[in-house]
Amino acid sequence: MKVLPLPYAPLDPVAELRRHYQRVVDTKFDGVIPRDFRIVFNPFLRRLTGRITYGLRLIEISRYHYTKYGMKDAIATLEHELLHLYLHKLGLPSGHNKDFKRLAAKKGIRVFHANAYPRNRTTPYRYLYECPSCRRLVSRMRRISGPHGLACGICCRTHTSGRWDARFELTFVARVMMI
Ligand SMILES: [Zn+2]
Ligand SMILES: [Zn+2]
User: Fold this and answer.
1) Distance (Å) of CA 49 to CA 59, 64, 65, 83, 114
2) Alpha-carbon distance 53 to 90, whole Å?
3) Residue 131 pLDDT exceeds 90
């Protein structure tokens, strides 16, 4: 009988993350960052794989992403959050800015995750748009934003061989509740 290796799932993943944290304070962050931030799993984070709140001295790791993508992913997230903390401790802006990306590349830290994730909850609201030409109604989960909006697909295909055209730009009608 062939025994398949089990996926790497430590018994106490938070303890594992804490150990990793203590290790990289010196090996990746020059001993600059504090060692006393708490690490917890957050069962609600979906879009984010993790989050750091300096004021609460708290690092949250998404339980969803850990469960789905494992310890390696949780460690990648932890190091990402610690890089925010590192810049913060150096008194620098600590968002996903140029310094963040430069240091992330240097230290082998992930900037953006590419994990799939479900939406927390589908909202009952939709944004209704109308094509000014054919009057077709289109509903969207989110408000359309950007330099120019969406155009009616049917009209663009019919009249401009699929190219975006301002004449067919959808106009906002209303935010409606789906019932
Ligand atoms: Zn971040
Ligand atoms: Zn149209």
Assistant:
1) 11, 8, 6, 14, 10
2) 16
3) yes
Residue 81 alpha carbon to ligand 1 centre in Å? 6
The closest ligand to the CA of 82 turns out to be: 1
Span 79-93, pLDDT tens digits: 999 999 999 999 999
Q: Tell me the two tokens of residue 4.
A: 């398949």
Q: 127 - beta bridge partners?
A: 140, 175
Angle between helices 63-89 and 13-27 (to 10 degrees): 30
**In the predicted model, what is the mean pLDDT of residues 138-162?**
86
The domains of the chain, with CATH numbers, are: 13-107 (3.30.2010.10), 125-177 (no CATH)
Q: Counting ligands in written order, which one lies closest to the CA of residue 132? A: 2
